[in-house]
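hey m, so remember when u said the tokens were messed up on ur end? i reran from scratch. heres the input so u can diff it against urs
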Amino acid sequence: MGLFFFPRKAVLLLLCAALALSVPAHSWAHGFAGKRFFPTTFQVDDPFISDEFSILINSMKQPGSQDSTELNIDYSKRILPRFGLEFHDAYQHVTSSGGDANGWENLDVGAKWQFFTSAEHEAIASLGTDVEIGGTGARQVSDSFSTVSPGIFFGKGFPEFPDSLKYLRPLAITGDIGPNFPTSGQDTSFTWDFTLQYSIIYLQSFIKDIGLGAPFNHFILVTEFPMQTGLGGNDKGLTTGTVNPGVVWFTKSVELGIAAQFPVNSSSGSGVGVLGLVHLFIDDLWPFGIGGPVFH
């Protein structure tokens, strides 16, 4: 089955609800460093911690002629203003010549501390650890062992560019790097993810108003590079990943995005995939309720 293996009505209702909740932006809590807004992207983790809820649909042909469709669910919650917990799970449907497989993948639980924010330099940095809890998912689509993945997460805009390069100031990068340690003696790997972004709202607000109206004035062009390199065993030195060009559109309380996926080699996939994102900024929807830190 393809991208619409999941109930179409449920996805459409979710999109409509997200749009209905959007309101004009004034003072935003999430993902800001000075003038720079860092959006949530598709497969590269945020460089900040906030109260957010995401649904990501990922459909792609995997190596071995397997068609894989995932419904990813992510939720993050601030405990302190700069420290929070993150939860991830995904329902996967795989179709292959050997038959179909369905089920929930292992539950991921993480913690993240945003230890650095510079408004002047439009920079953010965080430390975090993610744990995939082995045996919590269906055996057909998940591993019996756990994997621990510490990492550093970063975001950087470029306000330092001189006036001669002012049209490059809307550029930004985000990313995360860190090892992945399986608990069962499986091969360790190293994750190195990054994104390149160009913000239309930054361009029009702080460089030059080029006359784009709604909805184009709230676009951010994004290209992701989620990569992983094996550090031992049969996968030592093997890098897998995709290049994901896409676009996100956002308001104060909601973000929507769509991107393509191009595998970097035959070990990463065979054919172009699709990513679709619906993201709610809970910290702006309910700033004085469930959207705020537990402890201030």
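this time it looks ok to me. The chain has one domain: 8-20+28-53+74-87+109-218+228-285. if urs says something different then somethings off w ur setup not the seq
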